[in-house]
Design goal:
2 domains, five-stranded mixed β-sheet, 191 residues, alpha+beta, GTP Cyclohydrolase I, domain 2
């Protein structure tokens, strides 16, 4: 982002809050713009570009290597809801997949989840993006993503219900074909 764009964003932030009758401290617009830049740092980065950035796969021999499910669970992240630019928080993402010819470095799964969440998002879209990137990297269609989150558009405004959580589960490949595999993935999330 160009320096002139940052300056303009800071001035517009000050104007926005003035229109709402709120006088900000001198440093607040700068901090607000910095926060928004950070929280949306992958907004204009495609899933393919994220896959290229985190690409650390290892080839496996499908004849001899295990084809067991790999699960990385309870990845803690947050994102901004694209409807209200409200925080989705206390979010835990779990990703499972069945390796086909490639496995992905475990830290890279956590990294790509974090990158996907640095966009204005919907919880359902986060899971779709994770699956898309995992498919690119692992060449596997057998991917499952489970997300549990609180949404400040529910807890801090509107109904003000602080205890509700939104849970989504997206699955593809063998997870859709095999009830046993699906239940095994969901059981892994409980332990």
């Amino acid at each position: 982002m160009r320096s002139s764009d940052v300056d303009k964003a800071q001035e517009l932030t000050r104007e926005l809050f003035e229109c709402l009758g709120i006088k900000l401290m001198d440093e607040t617009p700068k901090r607000f713009v910095g926060m928004m830049r950070y929280l949306t740092s992958y907004e204009n980065i495609s899933n393919e570009e994220i896959a290229n950035e985190v690409n650390k796969t290892f080839e496996v021999d499908v004849r001899t290597d295990s084809k067991n499910m790999v699960v990385v669970k309870d990845i803690e992240v947050f994102s901004l809801c694209e409807h209200h630019i409200a925080l989705m928080y206390d979010m835990k993402v779990s990703v499972g997949y069945i390796p086909q010819n490639f496995v992905l470095g475990l830290s890279k799964i956590v990294r790509l989840v974090d990158m996907v969440c640095k966009r204005l998002q919907l919880q359902e879209k986060i899971a779709e993006d994770i699956i898309d990137i995992m498919r690119i990297l692992t060449k596997s269609d057998s991917i499952a993503v489970h997300i549990e989150a609180k949404h400040s558009c529910v807890t801090a405004r509107g109904i003000h219900n602080v205890s509700s959580k939104t849970v989504t589960t997206n699955m593809g490949g063998e997870f859709l074909k095999s009830e046993t595999l699906k239940l095994s993935f969901l059981e892994n999330l409980k332990s």
